Amino acid sequence: MKRLPSAVLLLSLACVGGAGAEQKYDLAKVVAECAACHGPEGIGNDVEIPNLAGQHDQYLYTQLQHFKSGRRPHKEMAFESRHLTDDEMRDLARYYSQLPAR
Ligand code: HEC
After folding, report:
1. Nearest atom of ligand 1 to the alpha carbon of 31
2. Which domains does the chain have, with CATH numbers?
3. What are phi and psi of 6, to 5 degrees?
4. What is the rounded CA–CA span in Å between residue 89 and residue 95?
5. Average pLDDT value for residue range 14-29
6. Element (H or E) spanning 88, and its range?
7. Which residues line ligand 1 at a C-beta cut-off of 6 Å?
């Protein structure tokens, strides 16, 4: 087996470290993904898709946690939440809770 040069190893460790607490991400980009189903305004595109606009942020956050952990089983939402970080879930929950309900 070929040994990895230690420079490569160090570099990959540095990358892991770099993805730390103050990692910046684009909330608008994440929201655009959600909008495919939940609409740009947090109003579901279909009768089977819940409105998120104006919902309590704590509730939305908890649901995202549960979709990711599998405690609330749902194929699409398990897929959508799999890569969300805790910060993103909080920001998404706050974002949708502040949109006007319909
Ligand atoms: C492929 C369509 C689709 C996409 C994309 C999608 N969702 Fe959903 N979402 C659904 C459906 C369908 C439900 C209803 C789940 C159920 O029946 O349990 C749901 C439920 C939810 C709920 C629970 C609402 C409630 O009233 O309990 C939240 C919160 C949520 N989605 C957030 C998001 C966020 C945030 C994103 C983007 C990261 C997203 N969704 C992307 C289809 C989608």
Report:
1. 37
2. 26-97 (1.10.760.10)
3. -65, -25
4. 10
5. 63
6. helix 86-97
7. 30, 33-34, 36-38, 48-50, 52, 60, 63-64, 74, 76-77, 80, 92
List the residue whose alpha carbon is closest to atom 40 of ligand 1. Answer: 34
Q: Are the C-beta atoms of 76 and 37 separated by less than 8 Å?
A: yes
Structure tokens at 74: 């749902």
The Cα 8–Cα 19 span in angstroms is: 17
> How distant is the alpha carbon of residue 30 from its chain centre?
7
SS3 55: coil
Query: Which backbone phi and psi does 8 adopt, to 5 degrees?
Result: -65, -45
81, with CB counted inside 10 A (0-12, 13-18, 19+), is buried
Query: 3-state class of 83 per DSSP?
Result: coil
pLDDT digits (tens, 9 = 90+) for 35-89: 999 999 999 999 999 999 999 999 999 999 999 999 999 999 999 999 999 999 9
